[in-house]
Amino acid sequence: MRHLTPSDYTRQPWKNGKGVTVELCRAERDGAIVYRLSMATVAEDGPFSLFPGIDRNLTVISGPGFRLTGEGIALDCQPLVPVAFPGDVAVSASGTAAGVSEDFNVMTARTLPRPEVAVLQDAPLLVGESLVAVFALAPLRLGARSLARHDLLLGAGLSGAVTGGPALVVRLHGLSG
Q: Is 2-109 assigned to CATH 3.40.50.300?
């Protein structure tokens, strides 16, 4: 099990040069992303970076949200509502005039089963064999472990009750650690 805090994260420019991503963690195999968890700020309308062979899941964690559109894609990205889309389809954000939004991103290789992303607050975390990430949106406890805002707990078989929060819980199926 890994407990990461904001001091462990890295900042890097977006592939399209229009912003900055805070990368929480990532795993690669043969130089390709297996999974990546990150945060980004969406402050203006414009295109998202392309990630061929990657499925994306995005959850607005602060701000009013925005709209994502592209060929065959029309998603309202509302606060605390996960949305999924392919990373290799060109999408653009619009509706950002309402305010800046911060989002949490889950990227997985398309060869993996789609991850499950849910918001949990004052509820049990169900045990499973999959790799699980718990991202604290506010201070919380997972069993006996305390997490500060924006801490990330990553491990297989995590269990316990989420007290406080909310938390984003990501199950990365097909991965065990």
A: no
β strands within the chain, DSSP E: 2-4, 10-13, 20-29, 32-42, 46-47, 54-62, 66-70, 73-77, 83-86, 91-94, 101-109, 116-120, 123-125, 131-136, 140-142, 145-147, 152-156, 160-164, 167-172
Give the pLDDT confidence of 40-59 residue by residue, as tens digits: 999 899 999 899 999 999 99
d(C-alpha 77, C-alpha 22), whole Å: 19
- Gap between the terminal Cα atoms of the chain: 8
**What global pTM score does this model have?**
0.93
Q: What are the structural domain ranges in the chain?
A: 2-109, 116-172
